[in-house]
Amino acid sequence: MSVPDMDSLPSVNEQLGGRAGHPNARRATVNNCPYCMSQNLFPDAETDNAWQCRECMRVFSVKFHGQLL
């Protein structure tokens, strides 16, 4: 299990429910599972920055590297 990032930033999503209510505000937001295209996604509690797909039962993460100029 990975350790959550420790910094002075407050968690902006703590009081929101559902998909957005996860403790890591920097978790990349996804709309669909890259394997089965399901929208049944939830933050993975055991792996920081990862998502659970409840349709195909996979855990995956997405990383944003930056924008092309």
TrEMBL record:
It comes from Corynebacterium macclintockiae. Residues 1-25 are annotated as: Disordered. This is Ferredoxin-like protein. It comes from the Bacteria.
